[in-house]
Amino acid sequence: MPLPLLFIGIAAATGGLGVGKTIKAGIDANNAKKINKNANEIVEASTEWLNAQRMACGNSLRQLGEEKLFILNSSITGFLDTFTKIKNVDFRESEGLEELKKLHVDEKEFVELKSMVSFAGSLAGGAVAGTAGGALAAFGAYGVAQALACASTGTAIASLSGAAATNATLAFFGGGSLAAGGLGMAGGTAVLGGLVAGPALMVMGFVAGHAAKKDLEKAYTNKAEALQIASQLNTASLQCETIRRRTYMFYNLLARLDTYFLPMIYKMEDIFQAEGDDYKQYSAESRKVIASCASTAVSIKSVLDTPILTDDGLLTDESEATATNIEGFLQNMRINI
Questions:
Q1: Does a structural domain hold residue 326?
Q2: Residues 145-168: pLDDT tens digits?
Q3: Structural domain includes residue 183
Q4: Which of 86, 119, 197, 271 is most exposed by smallest CB count within 10 Å?
């Protein structure tokens, strides 16, 4: 074979190989681009869903906080105004009313209710207007007793709104937004029992930044990371939904209890006007009304007291137990009415 023909053959073979590699590189680059785009879309979809769940959960906690304040400033206040004027109240000495003898209502419960009413009045007085969202979210999440336990009368509002601003879970739910002086989502990195919110904050550009490398192997790695991030975000979304359901359950319990409570308060006020202030002189039926009213007040207090979330953002076992107990109480109320 003449030497020039040999060179031409080699050049043709090499050129063909080069064209093949170029085509393969183009296909790989195109595939890498598609995979990276898909990875981005996976994380973005999970992030959008989590944000929707986060907002819904934060709103439900604020609504529960508002309901707690409303009941404390209305029904509980009305109950205490009359009940505290009645003398010689002793449910254990109710002849002929065996069910009242079993009713053990500690006077301490009503002392604590007075403190709650005072606290609620200060919270609703407008001093917390600038941080209402965070304060009410904390009020809904942690319960009144915990708020009172960590705050004196003078610093109750500041402590409550501060808890909303610094707690990672509530910051994540929007309770501690930057506008409210909190840390916002950026501050809530340790969210919902250890799930990391950080990846959700840098979704835009996290995966897309690798696409420029046009590296198919790296694109597959990106997608695997995207799936892992999406799994974490979806788990957080489910946790948000679970918390929201428990929050709505407590809201519903308070609303139903208040439905029974208000008519009883009116009856108690009528009894006080008609029969005076000495419980021992009341008729058997009147004593039963007073006892039922007091029992309902204590049940409402248990719902107000019970925290829904732990500091780690997990649902408390206590809230589940309280919900079960109150459902039983409401069932008995329906039977006795």
A1: yes
A2: 777 765 444 455 555 655 555 565
A3: no
A4: 86
Nearest-CA neighbor of 291 among 97, 58, 138, 133?
Answer: 97
Domain extent at residue 326: 3-104+200-336
Q: How confident is the model at residue 267 (pLDDT cuts 50, 70, 90)?
A: very high
Query: Domain for residue 141, yes or no?
Result: no
Does 144 fall in a domain? no
